[in-house]
Amino acid sequence: MLEDGVTTTLLCTFFIIFFVLILNFFQYLARESYIHIRDVTKEHNWKSIKKENKAYYCSICESLLLNISGLICDSCGVCADPTCVKIADKQLKCKIITTNINEPMNHHWIKGNLPLNVICDICNEDCDMEPGLTDWWCCWCHRCVHDDCKSKLSKICDFGKFKLMIIPPSSLEVINLRNTVRRRLRLCKVIPPNWPQWNPLIVVANKKSGNNDGAEILSLFRRLLNPAQVVDLSECDAVAILEWCRLLGKVTCTLLVAGGDGTIASLLNAIHKVGLKPIPSVAIIPLGTGNDLSRVLGWGKEHDLNKEPEDILQEIQIAEKVELDRWTVIIKPYGGLGLRSSRQIFYMYNYLSVGVDAQVTLNFHRTRKSRFYFYSSRLLNKLLYLCFGMQQVVERECKDLNKNIELYLDDKKINLPSIESIVILTFIMGCWC
């Protein structure tokens, strides 16, 4: 009986180890260090219209869509009810990501479901004033025209007012990965278009972050740009994202990062690690809890969900470029017997803290990484910070920090008063707001 029990235990242990190894293997496949692009020839990138504030009509049967069930492609704007989705995937082409045709591209017209308050590009009259699928708009340049005015507009699309931020389909070369576990296209080459002052924008966000704000950001910018240049951090790491910059060669690009201080810092670290030349500019959409770095650089303390993505692109176009200091922090821990263990190297962009505020942040970080942290929101995170802060007011774990730490400036020891924290700030002239 004892031998049977031991055998059963060993088999269970072996099975668990095997399962964990297989799981890690598939997670490794899911986060490869190169850029995967969704194959739009198969289907549209559907999302629900629940959060939309206008009426939509099915692009197939032309019926009015209900908010609880209607779907819209966040890349090209085609709409469908659940029963027409498969027909729409077959009959209506999505916004192309890449093409082998090295010729001026024609407009990609979408019938009906125009944005609110748009004007015809030909007659300057209001469009989409009647119910149903009326009038047309191009999902690349976003020009809108009446049915009668459509023939008067040039067939060639110039990509609109954000042309210099867009990577045109003719500039991308991909490899079809049909034999891999994940059937996608792999980006292998970027051919710069012959456009003066071309400065492509790469949008980076994690669809799982915050209150699903990251997913909404990704969706909004797929409509304005080439969907290939909108990258989800949950599907690849920061180094893979920077493959865009490497493939662009001597062309300087801009990275629009939607996230908190941690996401931005990890991307800045990756830029330093890869050693990119030229160094890309970084713009920020603040989706974190504190968003200190975003405030310092003038991008605001919190993202306004009602802000149009076109406004963000215009802000990037006129933004002033500033250099950001990067500080190396070396930690050399000592054991109880005075033995030195291996040192750790970190990088500081905004501030470095030792003491009570660092303890509060550490407690919050441990809570967020806990398996019991099911729901994430900016308000909940701030409440957690408040709770951990109040805890330190009562417990004072960092009391008399000056007795446990020595501070030297230019090799001169500083006499510290009774303190609970030391904060080292890096200041950017003219950018604090």
From TrEMBL:
One GO CC annotation: membrane
InterPro entries xref list: ATP-NAD_kinase_N, C1-like_sf, DGK, Diacylglycerol_kin_accessory, Diacylglycerol_kinase_cat_dom, NAD/diacylglycerol_kinase_sf, PKC_DAG/PE
GO molecular-function terms, A-Z: ATP binding; ATP-dependent diacylglycerol kinase activity; metal ion binding
Phorbol-ester/DAG-type domain: residues covered: 43-94, 106-157
EC top class named in words: transferase
Domain DAGKc: 196-333
Listed Gene3D superfamilies: 3.30.60.20, Probable inorganic polyphosphate/atp-NAD kinase, domain 1
EC number: 2.7.1.107
Reactions listed under catalytic activity: a 1,2-diacyl-sn-glycerol + ATP = a 1,2-diacyl-sn-glycero-3-phosphate + ADP + H(+)
Residue stretches in coiled coil: none
Keywords: ATP-binding, Kinase, Membrane, Metal-binding, Nucleotide-binding, Repeat, Transferase, Transmembrane, Transmembrane helix, Zinc
Biological-process GO terms, alphabetical: phospholipase C-activating G protein-coupled receptor signaling pathway
Superkingdom, natural source: Eukaryota
Annotated transmembrane regions: 6-26
Alphabetical list of PANTHER family matching this protein: DIACYLGLYCEROL KINASE (PTHR11255), DIACYLGLYCEROL KINASE EPSILON (PTHR11255:SF118)
Family note: Belongs to the eukaryotic diacylglycerol kinase family.
Protein name as catalogued: Diacylglycerol kinase
